[in-house]
Automatic annotation (TrEMBL):
<keyword id="KW-0732">Signal</keyword>
<dbReference type="GO" id="GO:0006776">
    <property type="term" value="P:vitamin A metabolic process"/>
</dbReference>
<keyword id="KW-1133">Transmembrane helix</keyword>
<feature type="transmembrane region" description="Helical">
    <location>
        <begin position="210"/>
        <end position="226"/>
    </location>
</feature>
<dbReference type="InterPro" id="IPR007053">
    <property type="entry name" value="LRAT_dom"/>
</dbReference>
<dbReference type="GO" id="GO:0005791">
    <property type="term" value="C:rough endoplasmic reticulum"/>
</dbReference>
<protein>
    <submittedName>
        <fullName>Lecithin retinol acyltransferase b, tandem duplicate 2</fullName>
    </submittedName>
</protein>
<dbReference type="Pfam" id="PF04970">
    <property type="entry name" value="LRAT"/>
</dbReference>
<dbReference type="InterPro" id="IPR042288">
    <property type="entry name" value="LRAT"/>
</dbReference>
<feature type="active site" description="Acyl-thioester intermediate">
    <location>
        <position position="157"/>
    </location>
</feature>
<feature type="signal peptide">
    <location>
        <begin position="1"/>
        <end position="17"/>
    </location>
</feature>
<keyword id="KW-0472">Membrane</keyword>
<keyword id="KW-0812">Transmembrane</keyword>
<feature type="domain" description="LRAT">
    <location>
        <begin position="46"/>
        <end position="173"/>
    </location>
</feature>
<dbReference type="GO" id="GO:0042572">
    <property type="term" value="P:retinol metabolic process"/>
</dbReference>
<dbReference type="GO" id="GO:0047173">
    <property type="term" value="F:phosphatidylcholine-retinol O-acyltransferase activity"/>
</dbReference>
Length: 227
């Protein structure tokens, strides 16, 4: 964890601007933005945007606010709430993924989108579960606000919104990733290559005891059977 904190202090602190001036600028047209977004989205809508190497999701709460679960290194390296509440940059996000720390937080629609186009309720046609009422969706999201352990595969932003809107914890991105990795790793070709490499390693090390040979045979056999 120490190397991640050091990286964050180097890259994140240097890129962080003084929040006081930015807050004053945002307050000028705040009401106009809130009204505009309330016409575009309904409370409880699931919002989708493209972010870095993956798709990011959030729940619209109304008033131009979005609740979303995002990896973030800043709470680990700083106790300054003004800095933590600033928009999560790609550097903060990537370091948060590596450190497995994140938070369910509320940001403006602009900060959530990070310049990307927003898609509304894309999962309604994909999920077998019916969407809950908008107010219930928003309440679920609000109850989960705070720091949460982040896992790119087992609990990410998609798991969060799927629970809030459909009552089920799942991620289509994780499913597709695991499916792709299965095709790459659990194949007959990989099993054959593994068998050859293990045999060469045993000959090179001159290790021929019963248990070592058994394990050497078992690994390619399991890969072969799983393919």
């Amino acid at each position: 964890m120490f190397p991640l904190r050091l990286l964050a202090l180097i890259f994140v602190s240097s890129a962080t601007a003084d929040p006081s001036s930015e807050e004053k600028e945002e307050e000028e047209d705040d009401e106009e933005k809130k009204n505009r977004y309330d016409l575009m989205f309904r409370r409880g809508d699931l919002l989708e945007v493209s972010r870095t190497l993956f798709t990011h999701f959030g729940i619209y709460l109304g008033g131009g606010r979005v609740a979303h679960f995002i990896p973030d290194i800043m709470p680990v390296v700083s106790t300054n709430q003004l800095r933590i509440k600033q928009m999560v940059t790609n550097t903060r996000l990537i370091l948060g993924v590596l450190a497995k720390c994140g938070s369910v937080r509320v940001d403006s629609v602009e900060d959530f989108a990070f310049g990307a186009d927003i898609i509304i309720n894309p999962m309604d046609k994909m999920c077998s579960c019916a969407a809950l009422q908008g107010e219930e969706v928003a309440r679920r999201a609000e109850k989960l606000l705070g720091d949460v352990a982040y896992s790119l595969l087992w609990y990410n932003c998609e798991h969060f919104v799927m629970y809030c809107r459909y009552g089920t914890v799942m991620s289509f991105q994780t499913f597709q990733f695991c499916k792709t990795m299965r095709k790459l790793l659990l194949s007959r070709g990989v099993a054959k290559v593994t068998a050859v490499l293990v045999a060469c390693l045993l000959v090179y090390l001159r290790v021929m005891d019963t248990w070592t040979v058994l394990l050497a045979v078992l690994l390619p056999f399991l890969l072969w059977m799983a393919s």
